[in-house]
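Write out this protein's structure.
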Amino acid sequence: MAKRSIKSQKCGRDARVPSIQQILLKWFRANARDLPWRQGRTPYAVWVSEIMLQQTQVATVIPYFNRFMKRFPTVEKLARAKQDTVLKHWEGLGYYSRGRNLHKAAKLIVSDYGGQLPDTVEELKKIPGIGRYTTGAIASIAFNRPAPILDGNVIRVLCRLFCIDGNPKEDATKKQLWELADTLVHTQHPGDFNEAMMELGAMVCTPQNPQCPKCPLRNQCDAKKQGRQHELPVRQKQKALPHYTIVVGVVYKGDRILIDKRRQNALLGGLWEFPGGKKKSGESFKAAVAREVKEETGIEVTVGKRLCIVKHTYSHFKITLHAYLCEYKRGIAKPLACDAIKWVTPKDLKKYAFPAANLKIFPKIYNL
């Protein structure tokens, strides 16, 4: 089937806009989920929830949001907190740059905006960690500004509703989708409408097996009329994720273990970990551990038995992590390839925020 032009899309959709808006708002008000950030809604709660919801499912976010808001109930308390404390409360949620940017933004909001999240699209764009989608979500939901949004759920709804054949990851199609979202957003109830679009994508217009008979927009949906709802959006072929073999040393000096903090601009920046890194081709595991520990902290160690093997998948790569028990040999530990180092007792490990793969080593340490 030939692609429909943007021009024809605009001509075909204008007549449907009022009915789509009315039907979807009515559906949302009757079917909206009872989510914690929708209770006693404040701009701060909207902001925190939208950052957490980036690339993360609602069910995963709920317990993190509740704990986070209990610990940091205001932007002032978040701004005053140490980054380590913030990341500890983010631990396990992933995409840690979100937590770092949230903390950085809180400081900026307190210092430059009097502790009040700005209420315009232009000012929101200046806040760290707030991109185009998040700007629209906060502006519309928290401040009733008629700003469009475009997340995965909304993209799916729009691609099916208007039978868009282009790949949503391509610039031309993305531009078309933003134009559609901008045209559709309700001027009087933009927040409710944007949430309705996301809710529809999450609950009804799902990636697999969309529940078309239950969809309030089934009579307006071009993909449903053409029997193409299972084909859209166009999916890009997934490339095989690269795999890396990682070694780490659980280094003991007496009753204490050496940990170091990842550099801020690195992946998982600001988190603590056991020193280590990628194993080189042809290098033995024990030699790799000794080399990595020395390069990272400057000390020499005696590498002992392997504690465990951990397999973990990140968004863009996979790792197999080999953790070895090590004994301090000589040298003064320094942060050579990290931001900080500490010698801590095993029971104190839980006080620090660690990447998920490192957390899986903890039980082996406790059982030594």
